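In the laboratory, one determines a bound structure by crystallizing the protein with its ligand and collecting diffraction data. In a computational setting the workflow is compressed into a single prediction: the sequence and the ligand go in, and a structural description comes out. We illustrate the idea with 2-acetamido-2-deoxy-beta-D-glucopyranose.
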Amino acid sequence: MNRNLTLSILLVLLVVIISVLAYHRYFMMTTYDDSSDCLPPSAVNLAQELLPEVDIFLRMYSSGVNYYDGLLIPSLKYFWPGNLSIVVVLDGENQTDRKLGEVLRKQYPFPRVCFQGPANPKIYHGLGHQRMQRDFFYPERFTSKKYVGFIDTDTVFVTRVTRQLLFEEEKPVVIGVYGPAADPFWSESSEITAKIYKTKEVMKCMSYFPVIIKVEHIILLREYLEAIHAKSFDDIFKMYAYLPISQFSWMCQYIWMFHREEYKFYFNQRPTKGNLTWRGENNSPGRVNHTYYNNVLTPEQRTPKPRTSIHYRYTAQWKKVETLRRFLQIGLCFSGGFDVCVEFCSNVEKNSLQEGLFHFEGSDWRWDDRCLEEQRRHYAVVKTMYTDKTTQAIVRAGCQEVVNLTFAIKKVDL
Ligand SMILES: *[C@@H]1O[C@H](CO)[C@@H](O)[C@H](O)[C@H]1NC(C)=O
Ligand SMILES: *[C@@H]1O[C@H](CO)[C@@H](O)[C@H](O)[C@H]1NC(C)=O
Ligand SMILES: *[C@@H]1O[C@H](CO)[C@@H](O)[C@H](O)[C@H]1NC(C)=O
Ligand SMILES: *[C@@H]1O[C@H](CO)[C@@H](O)[C@H](O)[C@H]1NC(C)=O
Ligand SMILES: *[C@@H]1O[C@H](CO)[C@@H](O)[C@H](O)[C@H]1NC(C)=O
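The predicted complex, in C-alpha cell form:
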C-alpha cells in the first residue's frame, strides 16, 4: 500500500480518537460541577448537647439571608438550649454565597458551611428551589452524623426545644399530616409521590420542623427508587422536578414503608369540621383512602404532638408583624417569661393552649382535647430548664426585642 495513504489513514484515526476522548471528557466529566466542599469549622464551632447525633441541615442561598438573620437565628437564640450543630449549604459557584459563607460561620450559631456545585441544571429544570430540594437527597455530602434535621430559612422556633419533642424512645419523632388536601399544590404533590413509589402516598411531611431522618435511610431511598425505575436518582428527579413535589413526603413515604419501627410516627388529621370524622372528602387521588388510617393507626399515633416551630411564610400571610409577635411572645412567656417578663406576659393567659405548638401552615389542631395534656407535659420538662441565670437573661432579652420586633423589622420584608 502507498506509504502516504497509510500515514494519512493513521492520522485520521488518531484525530478521530482524540476528538472522541475530548468530547467524552468535555460532556461527561467537566461540563457539570456536582462537587461539594465545606469550610473547616471556625474556631468557635461548638458541640451540640441537645442532639449530639444530629446535624441540623439548612439549604439556603444568599438571597435568603434576611430570613436567616431576621427570623430563624433570633428564634434559635431564644429557644434552642446551649450549642447547636448546624450545616448551612450554599451555592458553590456563586461568589456572593461564598462570601456569605465566610461571614456566617463566624457568627452564632457558628455553622459548618458547605458549598454545592450546580450539577447539571437539566436535573432540576434550572429552578433554584428544585435545585435545593435535590440537595436534600444527598445529605452524606455535608454531614458525617447519623441523622440530619431539615429546617427552612423561614422556620421560626416558638417554644423551648427539648429532646423529648424530637426523640421518643431514642427514635426521631415524625409528625405526618393526612386528610383533605390543603390546595391543588398538595393534591398534585401526593400524586407525584404515588408515581415515584408506584403506590399511594400516606402522609404529608412538610408538617413540622426539624424533619429528622437517618442519613443512611436517604441513601437507601435513592437506591430503592433507582431499582424500581431502573434509572439514576437524578434522572427520576428530573422527570418530576418541574411539578409540585415535596422532598419531605418522599422521605417519609420511604421510612414509613421500610423503617417504620425506627421512628416514632404520629399522624395529625387535617381538621374537618373540627373533629375526627373525616370520610375522605377532598382526598388527593394520590393518597391512600381514609379507611387506611382507621385500619392501620392506633389512637395513640393520632395524638396531636407539640411542634417546635412554625413555617413563617405559610403561617403569617396576613397581619404579618402581629402574627409573628404574638407567636414569639406567647412562646417566650410559656418558656420562662411568665416569671421574668411579667408585664410583657400580662395579656397572655397561662392556662390557654399555645397556638404555635399545634399550628402548621394554616392548620390548627387546638380543637383536639388532647392538646392540653400534651402542652402540660412539654412545659413540665421545660420548667426544669429555666432555673439558671443565663437562660433567664436570654428570655428577658427576648421579651424586650419582641415588644417591637427590633431584631426582625429592619431585615425582613414583613
Ligand atoms: C448569586 O446569588 C445572588 C443572590 O442570590 C444572585 O442575585 C446572583 O445572580 C447569583 N450569581 C450567579 C452568578 O448565579
Ligand atoms: C458550648 O460548647 C463549648 C465548647 O464545646 C462549651 O465550652 C460550652 O460550655 C457549651 N455551651 C453550653 C451552653 O453548653
Ligand atoms: C363532626 O363532623 C360530623 C360530620 O361532618 C358532624 O356531623 C358533627 O356534628 C361534628 N361534631 C362535632 C363535635 O363538631
Ligand atoms: C380503600 O382502599 C382499600 C385498599 O387499600 C380498598 O379495598 C377499599 O375499597 C377503599 N375504600 C374506599 C371507600 O374507597
Ligand atoms: C417600642 O416602641 C414604642 C413605641 O411604639 C417605644 O415607645 C418603645 O421605646 C419601644 N421599645 C423598644 C424596646 O424598642
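The chain has a mean pLDDT of 92. Keep in mind that any predicted model is a hypothesis to be tested, not a measurement.
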